[in-house]
Amino acid sequence: IIYAIYKNNKKMKLFKKNFIYLLIISSVYSYIEKDIVQSLPDYDYKGLFYSGYLSSSSVKQFHYVFHESDNNPENKPLVLWLNGGPGCSSLAGWALENGPMKIDINGTFKMNEYSWHLAANILYIESPGDVGFSYIDSDMSYDKEINDDIAANDNFNALIDFFKKFPNYKGRDFYISGESYAGIYIPTLAYKIIKYNKDVIGSKKINLKGILIGNGVTDYNHDSNYASIDFAFTHHLTSYENRMDYNKYCLKEYDETKCNEVLNDILDNLDNINVYDYLKECELPVTETGERDYFSNYYKRCPWAFKYLKKKQEELRKKLESIKLNSNDINISKDKKKLSSTPLCFNDKPMTDYFNRDDVKKALHVNIDIKWEMCSDAIGQRYIIQDKGSIWAYPTLISSGIRILIYSGDTDMVVPFNGNQGWIENLNLGVEKPWVQWKAFDDKNNVSGYYINSARTIYEIFQK
After folding, report:
1. pLDDT, tens digit (0-9, with 9 covering 90-100), for 65-88
2. Is residue 435 helix, strand or coil?
3. Does the model's pTM come out above 0.90?
């Protein structure tokens, strides 16, 4: 290659320039070559993708998976995907939702015909530190501190490191997407990018084009108990009396004791409801004998949500002892730090089993000593959720001109659509296109959903 350059360039100056360029390209390629996934066990995907670590700080290493689009990747945008929690792995999005293959209940991967990598280059980052295969190489308490502001800064630093690893994606149209608590992660990261772009020259700017947020937490005046309880009441999952008592004791005439009592009644009614999709079956934990396992982590993580838990635990203990099972074998852990935060009614065993295989860890180039969990309870316990949410960032996001898509499923009652509607309406943006049917794939017969286009920008409102 060097000889060819020399032969075709009579001026040595041009030769030196091209030679230096080749050295840079060569060093960058060797930097990312070690992250190429040559083959992943039981994952029959033949396209090129990467897995490795991005440096968020001197002690924080964030695991990433990056899929270049199968079709003309050089002409496709870059999309970052973040799952929520806080403390849940973005590999859930990769393996269950929008990755090239989806894992089923039996732990088998099957091709995903709706994979996002068909339309874009998709980057998944496990965030924050200590989530999934990401880790913090420090025992210092200040390195372990985590809140919404720190998460935004850490995600930004990891993204900058990605562009160092993949410089050919600098300047590429860039979008940030995700769901649930990523409704906090995404706007705060976008806000940081917009502020960063104002202070750097053109070649260093991040070409942020838009954000996409599904059932995202945004404003706790709307995305909170009120929205969930309103959803439960309007979908006949709790009683009229509970709704009235909640309005009275939790909103109008606040009484902490009575408010907690009515909340416990409502939550106890939702014991076997899949709160992430109330129309789907709730995968409840059972013992080896088929009894509901009231000693499982499912209940121990939030015992306050189950009014009769202690009574049912005692009944279960007696029943197991009556059939001559040793009660010491019952899984009763008192160490909260060892409990995982698997989403309610969700079976994460196929993913947990797969990602904890040594051969899978080696193929993904991750720390083999890390025990992968879908959601980290340790992060959940030390994560400080800030009251300001992410609604404060929207004036800047909208006035910047980036595109914003807020979308919600209508069966999720954890961060339900009515909460999203509430805070969006509260922005007083006006309407460009009113409530109208949306039909996917130009299907004229089946309605896939509804949408509204907002008209005025917050910038215009704030100018007045």
Report:
1. 999 998 899 999 999 999 998 999
2. strand
3. no
